[in-house]
Amino acid sequence: MRVEWRPLANEDLASIRRYIARDDKLQARRFGAELRSRVKVLSDHPELGRPLDMAVPPGVRVLVLHENYLAYYRIIDAGGEPVVQVLRVKHAAQERV
């Protein structure tokens, strides 16, 4: 299954990398790559994350990427092909999607 990063999710990841890069640019690149790699697992296991109760939009699931970071995603039908859409990547202390 294809994994598609939505613009806000890409912005979230860039923001996380910028924050880490203030102290260590190499670690920021590595951490960004690690988070993307963990999201790739959804291509083979799209229901790995748990469903959110009362999610808006409906069908949103959450996957723990790292002890402090969560990916919010949903599975959609894109012209007969299921696609995992990564909606946001947030620090666990931040509000939900």
From TrEMBL:
Matching Pfam families: ParE_toxin
Matches recorded under Gene3D superfamilies: RelE-like (3.30.2310.20)
Keywords: Toxin-antitoxin system
Keyword check for Nucleotide-binding: no
InterPro entries, per the entry: RelE/ParE_toxin (IPR007712), RelE/ParE_toxin_dom_sf (IPR035093), TA_system_RelE-like_toxin (IPR051803)
Superkingdom of origin: Bacteria
UniProt key word Kinase: no
Family: Belongs to the RelE toxin family.
PANTHER family listed in its UniProt record: TOXIN PARE1-RELATED
The protein's name in its UniProt record: Plasmid stabilization system protein ParE
Organism field: Pseudorhodoferax soli
